Amino acid sequence: MSETPDTAFETHRPRLMALAYRMLGSRGDAEEIVQDAWLRWHQADRSAIRDPEGWLVTATTRLGIDRLRLARTEREVYPGPWLPEPLNADDSPGPEQQADVAGQVSLAFLALLEKLGPEERAAFLLKEVFDYDYAQIAGLLGHTEANCRQMVSRARTRVQAGRPRFAVAPDTHRRLLERFMHAMQRGDRESIMALLHADARLVSDGGGKVTAVIRPLEGAARIADLYWTVARRTEGEADLRLGHVNGEPALLRFHEGRLHSISTIGVDENGRITQVLSVLNPDKLRGLVA
Global pTM? Predict the structure, then answer.
């Protein structure tokens, strides 16, 4: 029995969704792109398609590039900082799964990808994450192999420049996050400062829909002051829990039983928090936690 169009598409859907999400940093946009690829697949002359996976990856990549170009314009007028939309939140996957997933879709990694142009981002992901060779990437993007090598090289340099120089063990990361959570709950300014690097940076995304810091906050003292103020204003109202978002340890803040924000941290080789990324935009949190 020959494979139906729907069955063929569903076979490749997980890969297409993984690519679209990494390209766009948005669950909703990724789902729309994959749906558009499905529509094109059904409208295509499949008798002429020798490599269904290649055809679908090409369609998804090109749709993603077009959507990224539009998104860059939209994000220029976004109210406050824009952060990626979390893909999932879960209880506690194993350490190996955490490291594997977080290395590819952590909020920090996706935020770094925002520095790349649409085609540059696609080329980088196809090579570094999905292990396509340069001949395949050239065919997908309609560029020469030499151009694709240059794009990937530039992207790799920019991404590496923004990544931590040293990887921190997941257990160490989680313990530090737990100490940070307890200090936040107490509004303990001195303890918060002790956990932060002097030049730590906080970025929060409220999307103009909830109260959030509208510009990145620089420096341990300023960040500690913010959390001290928040603790005083919300004493007894918020429920902070440890969890995992996109495979990395995260703080989940609930208010009246609803997910209010998720926060992830970057850690240096000395065990100090260098970055806090907080997503508060309710549109980006919808459906993450039952």
Answer: 0.90
